[in-house]
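Hi there,

I know you've been waiting on this one. I reran it after we fixed the sequence typo, so this is the corrected version. Both the input and the resulting structure follow.
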Amino acid sequence: MKKPIFFTLLIVLFFNCKEPAKEPIDTATSEAENYLSFTNRDDQFTGGIKMIPITTEKGTFKVWTKTVGHNPTKKVLLLHGGPGMTHEIYSCFDGYFPQESIEYIYYDQLGSYYSDRPDDLSLWTTERFVEEVEQVRKALKLDESNFYLLGQSWGGILAMEYALKYQKNLKGLIISNMMSSIPEYNAYAQEVLGPQLDPKVYEEIKLIEANQDFTNPRYGELLFNHYYTEHVLRMPVEEWPEAISRTFNHANNQVYVHMQGHSEFGITGDATLKDWDIKTRLKEIAVPTLVIGAKYDTMDPKHMEWMSKEVQNGRYLFCPNGSHLSQYDDQKNYFKGIIQFIRDTNKK
C-alpha cells in the first residue's frame, strides 16, 4: 500500500531540517585572535602605548610604555640597559614572543628617549629607579600571578634590585647579561677582555681613557671596530640591526655617564654604580630566576652561571655564540631558553 503523500513530505522535511554539523573550533586561532585583540582595552586608541605618571621627590614625570599582545598569565616587562638607552634594543622580541602568546611591555625608563628627560642628576639613582618600576607595575596591573621581569645589562642591575625589595610581586625573574658585582665586572673587563685585544689597539684605548679624551672620534672608532664587534654585538657594524643604531642615537649620555661613566672597560671615576655589589644577597631571591650569560659577553659568563646557583630557584642559560646582545647574535638559543623558562614557570 502506498504511503500518504503528506507522510512522505514529513520525512523529507525532517531530514532536511536537521541541524548542520558544527565546524570544530580552532583553539589556536581563537587564542591568537584574543592575543592580538584590543577589544575592551583602555589603550586601544594608542595601539598599546601608555604614558605612565611617575612620582618623585622632584615632581611628577611620565614614562613611555607599549604593551604587545594579551595574556593574563604571561606578562614580561622589559628593562633596557644603559642607563639611558631605550626599549628599541628589544625590537627583535617581536619575532619570537607573539607566536608564543607571551604578552610583553616595552618601556623607556625616566630619562630615556621616549619618556620625560628631566635635567637633574639627583634622579639617577638605583633606589629611585626601583620605585619607578614599582609604579609602572601598579599602573599596568601586573602581579605575582603573571609578572615576569626581564632586565639586560643595567636593566639586570635594576631587575635584581627590584627583586630584592619587591619579589613578592613577581612570578619570574630574568637577569640577562649582567653580573652581580661591578668590582668583579671591572676586573674581568680590564684583566681578561682588554688584553685579548690587539696590544696596540688596547694601548691606544687606555691612553685615550687616561687623558679622559672621550669625545675623541678615534675612541669611538676603536671601540666599535675592535671591542663592540667582539663583545657587544658580534657582526660588522654596518650589518647591525637598525634598531640598535637607533638605540645608540637616542641614548641619554647624562644618565649614562653619571651612573656608568665614560669607560667601556669597567665602571670607574665618579660613576655612581662603580661600587655596586649584591652578590652576597643573591641567596635572598626565592622567585624562579633565569640567568643568561654568553661566551663572548662583556660580562663573565662563569660569574653569571654562579649567580644562577646562588639564588634559591635558579636556572642558567648559556649562549655559546653570543655576546652582550645575545638576543641578536645568538638569537635562537636566547629565545628558546627564555620561552622554555616562562613555560616551565607557568606550569608551577
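Quick highlight: The longest helix spans residues 331-347.

Best,
R. S.
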